Amino acid sequence: MLTNSEVEAVMRDGTVLRADLHRPPAGRGPWPVLLARCPYGKRDPGILARLAPDAAARRGYLVVLQDTRGRFASDGDWEPLVHERDDGYDTVRWAARLPGADGRVAMYGPSYLGQAQWAAAAAAPPELVAVLPEFAWSDPYDGLLARGGVPERGLVTQWSLGLGQEVLRRRYATAPRELRRALAQWADAVAALDRPDAPAGAWDPEILRRLPVPGRPDGPAARPAYAASAPPRLPAFTVAGWYDAFVQGSLDHHHRAGGAGHPAALLVGPWSHGNQTARVGAADFGRDADQAAIDGGRSLLDRELDWLDAVLGKDGADRPAGGALVFVMGVNRWRRLDRWPPESVATTWFLRAAGALSIRPPAPGEAPDTFRHDPADPAPVRGGALLLTAGYPAGPFDQRPVEARPDVLVFTSRPLAGPLEVIGRVRVTLTVAASAGPADWVARLCDVAPDGTSVNLTDGIARTGGPGPAEAPVEVPVDLWSTAHVFRPGHRLRLQVAAAGRPRWESLSPAAVRTVFHDADRLSRLVLPVVGGGAATRW
User: Fold this and answer.
1) Could you tell me which of 276, 302, 280, 304 has the C-alpha nearest to residue 290?
2) Residues 68, 75: contact at Cβ < 8 Å?
3) How many CB atoms are located within 10 Å of the residue 18 CB?
4) Cβ neighbours of residue 45 closer than 8 Å, sequence gap 6 or more
5) Which of 135, 213, 351, 412 is the 20 to 30 Å CA partner of 24?
6) Please, is 531 exposed, middle or buried when counting C-beta atoms within 10 Å of its C-beta (0-12, 13-18, 19+)?
């Protein structure tokens, strides 16, 4: 249903960006515009399958898919994130004046396309009436470029390399010999990342500088262009996944969106960044978890367009919904909440001697636990909210191979007598010391089944100290972001503590002895948001 190709939009600095238009099959309009701004190629088969522009056009939208600055058909230089605010503003104003447009523009799409929506919304073009971002970050220094002060080495390396082919084709467009050499080096670098046994050097960000491929900016001067934007005051439908690398950013955006009477809706599935089916990682969450028929009903795209129809006041549309629809793992059911996060009770579980995790605080004099971190053999990551390569899939996996390592501490509760429902932000505070610094601290929450299977739910990382000898014990908060999960009767809670998560998190930590304290004067604890009614309706 592509009706106009390579339609040009001129930005304020004269740069020309190009878009494809998908018009409804009947009538002359006017129609509202549904805009997506994409760095991955507006005709990429995966992008077209994800955005389904022809299906959206049949619902009565003039769909505009635009290549962002410096990508594919658009002019200019590719600088990740830098131009999306101004280019987004200019593009929305241009799209509202297209032949057949009714002057109203909504934006949609996942990941970078979601970030482009928030950037444009922050600039507040008057024609922008709604956004539908999926799987997008908020503060890029909390999940995209870094987490807990530790660089997201794996994500930035693989993402930048993945975009590098088009960068190199442009750079060497008039030098075919140099292009062949550069593309061969690029292919070797990408292939190395796809091997599960890839050496640590394969994930070294230095490869981005050698090619060279634009990656993250350097220095404090670059931060303003990447900083989280002020929340837009317009309708927003946010989609997230519990095993998505940007889940907390999506939740944060939803929490700040809306206002002034505008609806803000949230949908969170048990999904990863690139997988919204019922099978994620090693888990099968049931057919109702699949984005094709959520909760046995309509697809994700249909739900988004139903909501947008309501926002735009289309004939026959219901009133636009707010609140949240979240998938609760453990029982594998969808649950509707009046708001996010729901009311909860902060419940503390204390790390104890002999690998125990208990609601009872420790006694004075409990001996700490120690382990040795070896940077030549760091603890690996196994599943989780990842955005790496095929060799490191995201999602829930049995953690026992990781927990068997001598450099991973494990603290486990007794079997639960009844169900424990956790929905919201999970936080850990550790009292720690290292014989040399800096030191990274990874904490991971798991559900242990009666057969011993230990499945990861959510994790986080934080860094302490600087280069040099041992420091006195310090408290370090570790933000594990959010989850929705029921620990069933007979199951146990488990908290892992490690010093690394290779290849996800870049580590500068030297070989050192790590100590985790858990006595009455130096507590280490896990705090869970436990729900049981209140603002949340029952199943």
Assistant:
1) 276
2) no
3) 18
4) none
5) 135
6) buried
Is residue 475 within 8 A of residue 416, CB to CB? The reply is no
Cα distances from 104 to residues 16, 52, 129, 476, in angstroms, run 22, 20, 6, 48
- pLDDT tens-digit map of 511-522: 999 999 999 999
DSSP-derived secondary structure letter, 196: T
Tens digits of per-residue pLDDT, 228-268?
455 567 999 999 999 999 999 999 999 888 666 788 999 99
507: left (phi over 0), alpha (psi -120 to 50) or beta: beta
**Please, which residues have CB within 8 angstroms of residue 88's CB and are 6 or more apart in sequence?**
37, 107, 116, 117, 119, 120, 121, 123, 125
Specify the pTM: 0.94
DSSP assignment of 257-305: S-BTTB-EEEEEEEEESS--SSEETTEE--GGGSTTSGGGS--HHHHHH
- Residues 60 and 115: their CA atoms lie apart, in Å, by 25
Cis check for the bond before 231: say yes or no (omega within 30 of 0): no
- Between CA 427 and CA 482 the distance in angstroms is 9
Q: Are β-strands 31-38 and 101-110 bridged in parallel, bridged antiparallel, or unpaired? A: parallel
pLDDT band at 537 (very low <50, low <70, confident <90, very high): very low
